[in-house]
Amino acid sequence: MSRVPIIAGNWKLFKTSKEAIELASGLLPLVKNKSNVEIIISPVFTVLERVSKVIAGSNIKLAAQDCFWEEEGAFTGEVSPSMLLDAGCSHVIIGHSERRQYFGETDETVNKKLKAALSKGLTVILCVGETLQEREMGKTFDLLQKQLKGGLSGISSNSFDKIIIAYEPVWAIGTGKTATDQQAEEVHAFIRSEIGSFYSSLVADNIRILYGGSVKPENISGLISQKNIDGALVGGASLQVESFAALVNAV
Ligand code: PEP
Known about the structure:
Strand 2 (38-42), helix 2 (48-55) and strand 3 (60-64) form a beta-alpha-beta unit. It is built from 11 helices and 8 strands. The protein is an alpha/beta fold. An 8-stranded parallel beta barrel has the order 1-2-3-4-5-6-7-8, surrounded by 5 helices.
């Protein structure tokens, strides 16, 4: 079993096209010699195609932050998996907690999106994670089990080479509060064992599980050295060339 680590940047609702091109171009020389880590950036829809041209032929891959489950039709404002491929994406983030919190994403819609994205050959970063209230009520593991079961419903084990899971405790996203290395490792081990019991130990051993929630150059080493943490999904620190390159180079 060898799981190549991943550092993925979620640019959220930041960066105009000029800024996005500057950020992507600035990253290229700083990470170009990294071959032992997969690097992914995730700009807003409107700049995907332009950024894809900047990173073409490099070791940086492109993800979208969401997608819809239908291919085409009267669905104003939505973007389909084929359109993401057309714009140069290889990956898509699905079920980010901000989508769940502000845009009515449920395990059911996550599941539909995941199936649609996989059917077109995109690799999915499936986000799961508990709120502070859920953690304090001792519901973390039940909630994660529910999100995993719901999100992965009907997915067969041979799709797992195109699924990455991101554990992102909602209370740690954009708050400056990081889960401790042990807190994160405990949950990652749980997620891996759940995948093992839903599927097989082979699938569990191979799936990459990223941690997300205020990851910075100062805290990446402790997290990444945990047995079940295979990289990070990074918001804030992915918005600057220096901090994102430092995260990549810390792996
Ligand atoms: C995220 O957006 O997925 C995230 C983890 O954000 P931040 O790193 O800013 O907490």
